[in-house]
Specification:
alpha/beta, TIM Barrel, eight-stranded parallel β-barrel, 13% strand
Length: 290
């Protein structure tokens, strides 16, 4: 269910800041037509931090309803265990196939607190949970040893690893149960992460070039490393350009420039610096995406 390419989809918005439902449906269709296996709404790329609770569920409902072939992995984490439980149950009731649950951020719990947090969530729902480890946003890293403990919890099915630490990813992939799925959370590290045992990625760049990212990951899964490396090298300028500023500022800008539904960002995220936008536009043109 989890191997292959998953897209951390943007949340398109109208000029007044409301959720662009038709635009989101169009984006889901675009992803499915290009072979993306799983759609991930309400992650960091989907601006979940500035969605209200009602909007969060609205976005998940739209994606679940729009998806005809792809699975839906709904972002449903929080720094409050009770809020994460509420979101998780609601996403399950809506029809999500699995959940992406971020490490509790800001309050920096101990290893025991992290374990109890995920135990409680996994025990409360029937669908699988993917742990989202992204220390750059949460202020703490889930170590390989702690992740291996979490991997033993029934219902914890995998991890989106965005620590940037290949040694950590390799250790988890080598020592976790066979049915525990390791997914890259960094586009630029997807190929090396898969070389050490990851089974795919939850990608930002696949928003705008899904077919190419899908192909690169599939080649790696087949063991065609040279073919995957060639595609990855083609994509490297795009990976860099999409992180010139805080995600999802560049990808949402890129989608707008390429004619896809995107709309404005919500404060405190704001428009790209003009020089960075010009650099991004140049890369998009070189990639044939404009």
């Amino acid at each position: 269910m989890f191997s292959g390419c998953s897209t951390a989809i943007i949340t398109p918005m109208k000029a007044d800041g409301a959720i662009d439902e038709e635009g989101l449906r169009e984006l889901v269709k675009f992803q499915e037509e290009n072979g993306v296996k799983t759609i991930v709404p309400c992650g960091s790329t989907g601006e979940s931090a500035t969605l209200s609770y009602e909007e969060h569920l609205q976005v998940i409902k739209i994606v679940v309803d729009a998806a005809q072939k792809a699975k839906v992995m709904a972002g449903a984490g929080s720094n409050s265990t009770s809020e994460a439980l509420e979101l998780s149950k609601a996403a399950e009731d809506i029809g999500a196939d699995s959940l992406l649950s971020i490490t509790p951020y800001y309050n920096k719990p101990t290893a025991k607190g992290v374990r109890l947090h995920f135990e409680k969530i996994a025990a409360a729902i029937e669908i699988p949970v993917i742990v989202y480890n992204i220390p750059s946003r949460t202020g703490m890293n889930i170590s390989a040893d702690l992740m291996l403990e979490l991997a033993k919890i029934p219902g914890i099915a995998g991890v989106k690893e965005a620590s940037g630490n290949l040694n950590q990813i390799a250790k988890i992939a080598a020592l976790a149960p066979k049915d525990f799925c390791v997914l890259s959370g960094d586009d630029a590290l997807t190929l090396p992460a898969m070389a050490v045992g990851a089974q795919g990625a939850i990608s930002v760049s696949s928003n705008i070039t899904p077919a190419k990212v899908v192909r690169m990951i599939e080649e790696m899964l087949k063991g065609n490393v040279q073919q995957a490396r060639e595609i990855n090298q083609e994509l490297m300028p795009l990976y860099e350009a999409l992180f010139l500023e805080t995600n999802p500022i560049p990808i949402k800008t890129a989608m707008r420039l390429a004619g896809h539904p995107a709309g404005p960002l919500r404060l405190p995220l704001c428009d790209m610096d003009e020089k960075n936008e010009e650099r991004l536009k140049s890369v998009l043109a070189q990639q044939g995406l404009l």
